[in-house]
Amino acid sequence: MFNSKNYRIVPLLFMTSFLAVTASAHTVFAQGSSKKGNVKQLNIQADKLRDSFIRQSADIARKYSDAGDYESSKQMLESILSIKKDVPGVKAMIKQLDEKMLSSNSSDFEIDASRNWSGPAGLVAKGKTIRIQATGTYDLITDIKTSVEGLPEKNPMKEIAAGVPVGALMGVVITQEKGKPKMGKPFKIGEKAEYTPKDDGVLMVGLNLPPGHQSKGKVKVRISGYFRRSSN
Known about the structure:
Blueprint: H1 4-8, H2 10-30, H3 36-66, H4 70-83, H5 90-103, E1 107-112, E2 122-124, E3 130-135, E4 169-177, E5 180-183, E6 187-188, E7 192-195, E8 201-207, E9 218-225, E10 227-228
Antiparallel strand pairs: 1-9, 2-8, 2-10, 3-7, 3-9, 4-5, 4-6, 4-8
């Protein structure tokens, strides 16, 4: 069994060694043209060190992926690109890992149209993308009087959410600001959406329906990626 803590220090150790060799090369070069032969040897050493790092990092990335730790695997591959941007296959591997991360760790639940919202769907993290998919239809039933101003949209949890089609599945992330809950901007989900939160928070998923509606039916929702299901 490999030790992930040891693997995490590999990029740092390499960078320290690589910079030391490079710095030595610059120092020798600065001493005069008679030292050019030494600079060439140092460049060869630096290239060998870089190539060794790339091979070891690729091997560690594979082991992380086999162990199901896709994020650490991606970090190792990104460390390769930080040294050499044109290593064949690395970008494609990162793309595959992104898909694996978005497809894994899934959670399924239903939303009752008569209630608009589910309970807290789960916890999301800043900068970590989630994927939300939904299936099903429901009966949108309403008999509401309104003025020429239209339906109110001040509170998306109780009223129509601005910028989201009426009846559409939507999401909103509730964060904490100075110890108080703060509601983010509602975003449309529809049949499928990928969303990257700007802050850590609680994800709410619901239907954009006006107050007083009498809708019936249920829709099925699946969330996957960087997401932790909360207990309702």
